[in-house]
């Protein structure tokens, strides 16, 4: 009977530990060679819920239709951009996001060099120096790679993009953003230098993952302690 109870306690401990560890996200390589962080329970590879962001500034003193800037992934793992905040005037407009591998320099007027990520339609601008959120889908960026981004409002609508004169570099543990130029029209007139006003929201990179292993270790210690106490009491009674 004693052996059965000990076995029951041990199995219970293993189940609890395994269930806890099974919730931990882990990196896999897709068929296309991309590294993705899988969250257990999702139907396909997906990066864990984002909580990282990189902000330039919201202090505009100039404006036109869009901005181009360089963005380098300095992290050792992929980064997935989930959303942006931008600085636009009040009103409703459509906002498009383009990107390319390598710098924007020399490609400001070359639309063929850029890939359209997507367009967020009917975006309601929150006014100068107030963040306006846009979502054009997830963009996965490779570690150690330089990219260029072009974010633009619809030039045919009166709502304009606000930005700041000058140049600057902004960085965190995963991304380094170098701004940039202002663009009037779609791939049109270039105003150099101009700083994009906004925030990039992302997942992955060098963000510290939640320590699921620590939770599993706590359960192991608690279970072991309970098992030892139980055996001591049984010996005392015997």
Folded structure, characterized:
The chain folds into two domains: about 50 residues; about 150 residues, PHR domain (Jelly Rolls), CATH 2.60.120.820. About 20% of the residues lie in helices and about 40% in strands. The protein is built from two helices and 17 strands. The strands form four sheets. Strands 5, 7, 8, 11, 13, 14 and 15 form a seven-stranded antiparallel β-sheet that branches. Strands 3, 6, 9, 10 and 17 form a five-stranded antiparallel β-sheet that branches. A hairpin with a 3-residue loop joins strand 13 and strand 14. Helix 1 runs antiparallel to helix 2. The longest helix is centred in the last third of the chain and has 26 residues. The two termini are about 15 Å apart. About 10% of the residues have low confidence.
Short description:
The protein has 238 residues and is an alpha+beta fold.
Share of β-strand residues: 35-45%
Number of domains: 2
Name the poorly predicted regions. 28-36, 39-49
- CATH level 1 name of the largest domain: Mainly Beta
CATH topology of the largest domain: Jelly Rolls
Question: Which descriptors would you attach to this protein?
Answer:
about 240 residues; alpha+beta; Jelly Rolls; 2 domains; seven-stranded antiparallel β-sheet; five-stranded antiparallel β-sheet; 17 strands
Task: Please give the structural blueprint.
Blueprint: H1 2-21, E1 26-29, E2 35-38, E3 52-55, E4 62-64, E5 66-73, E6 79-86, E7 91-101, E8 115-125, E9 132-134, E10 139-141, E11 146-153, E12 161-165, E13 168-171, E14 175-184, E15 189-191, E16 194-196, E17 198-204, H2 212-237
Antiparallel strand pairs: 1-2, 3-17, 4-12, 5-11, 5-14, 6-9, 6-10, 6-17, 7-8, 7-11, 12-16, 13-14, 14-15
Helix pairs in contact: 1-2
């Amino acid at each position: 009977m004693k052996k059965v109870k000990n076995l029951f306690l041990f199995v219970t401990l293993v189940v609890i530990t395994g269930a806890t560890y099974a919730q931990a996200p882990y990196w896999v390589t897709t068929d296309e060679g991309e590294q993705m962080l899988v969250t257990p329970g999702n139907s396909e590879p997906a990066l864990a819920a984002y909580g990282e962001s990189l902000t330039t500034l919201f202090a505009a003193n100039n404006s036109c239709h869009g901005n181009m800037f360089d963005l380098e992934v300095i992290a050792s793992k992929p980064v997935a951009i989930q959303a942006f905040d931008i600085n636009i005037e009040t009103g409703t407009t459509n906002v498009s996001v383009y990107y390319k591998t390598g710098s924007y320099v020399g490609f400001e007027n070359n639309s063929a060099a850029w890939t359209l990520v997507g367009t967020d339609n009917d975006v309601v601008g929150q006014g100068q120096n107030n963040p306006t959120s846009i979502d054009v889908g997830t963009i996965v960026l490779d570690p150690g790679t330089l990219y260029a981004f072009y974010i633009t409002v619809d030039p045919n609508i009166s709502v304009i993009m606000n930005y700041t004169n000058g140049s600057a570099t902004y960085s965190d543990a995963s991304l380094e953003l170098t701004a940039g130029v202002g663009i009037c029209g779609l791939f049109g007139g270039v105003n150099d230098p101009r700083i994009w006003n906004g925030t990039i929201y992302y997942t992955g990179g060098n963000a510290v993952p939640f320590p699921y292993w620590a939770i599993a270790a706590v359960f192991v210690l608690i279970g072991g302690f309970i098992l030892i106490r139980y055996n001591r009491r049984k010996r005392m009674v015997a």
